[in-house]
Design a protein that fits this description.
Pfam family, one: HTH_IclR
Keywords: DNA-binding, Transcription, Transcription regulation
Number of strands: 8
Number of helices: 10
Strand content: 15-25%
InterPro entries: GAF-like_dom_sf (IPR029016), HTH_MetabolicPath_Reg (IPR050707), Tscrpt_reg_IclR_C (IPR014757), Tscrpt_reg_IclR_N (IPR005471), WH-like_DNA-bd_sf (IPR036388), WH_DNA-bd_sf (IPR036390)
Helix content: 40-55%
Radius of gyration: 20 Å
Organism: Streptomyces albidochromogenes
Order of helices and strands: HHHEEHHEEEHHHEEEHH
Structural class: alpha+beta
Oligomer: single chain
Distance between the termini: 49 Å
Protein name: IclR family transcriptional regulator
Strand order of the largest sheet: 5-4-3-8-7-6
Amino acid sequence: MAGPVQSIERAAAILRLLAAGPQRLGLGEVAASLGLAKGTAHGILRTLQLVDFVEQDAATGKYQLGAALLHLGTSYLDVNELRSRSINWADALAARSGEAVRLGTPLEGRVLVIHHVFRPDDTLQTLDVGALLPLHASSLGKVLLAFGTANLDAAVDTGLEAYTRHTLAHADELTHVLAEIRENGWGSEVQEMSMGEAGVAAPIRGHGGLVVGAIGLSGPVERICDGRGRPELKLLTVLREAARAISRNLGAARW
């Protein structure tokens, strides 16, 4: 049997690198990060650019993921059962709560946002579909960790980055909070990933009651939380109702 094709492995590594960061990367940064010669990295980037998997900024010369690749990702998400069975409920949840709604599943030690419904108002918002969030600093991620859908040991081993002074950056703190999430049936994050922002999430279950994803509300702290910094009860109520409805649609027993 033929072995792996090195050029494809390198191309995949470049695409993963570009997908992992929030900013565009220059040729030197790509080459250094992957241990490639600049000529090799440039040749692969040029090829990816020709098929629209990568785009190059004309002003800076730096690279980012291209439209064709993002389209392929969206095509995958469209057939993803969790997303397709959740869309209607997520739209309704945004309308009932007045807040942004995101659906997440674990991917390579992070949370992949597979669906995002904007907050139903006129404020400027950015689509998060395809974004990767930290497991330990997001409400979606903490729910996935709490119910074993994402690997806690792997998350701890890779390091719990402190995004703000509120981030749970120590394993014992995180373990304690995850136990509370399992008991309460929901998880939250208050200014742990970004100052001024908060979120609350609930598990989505499939056949056999296994947690297969999470659905969450997010927005400014003053909209998500009460004066004590806890999620508003009315938001928790509609969130958990949506999570139960999606879970029943996926074949989970009532609970």
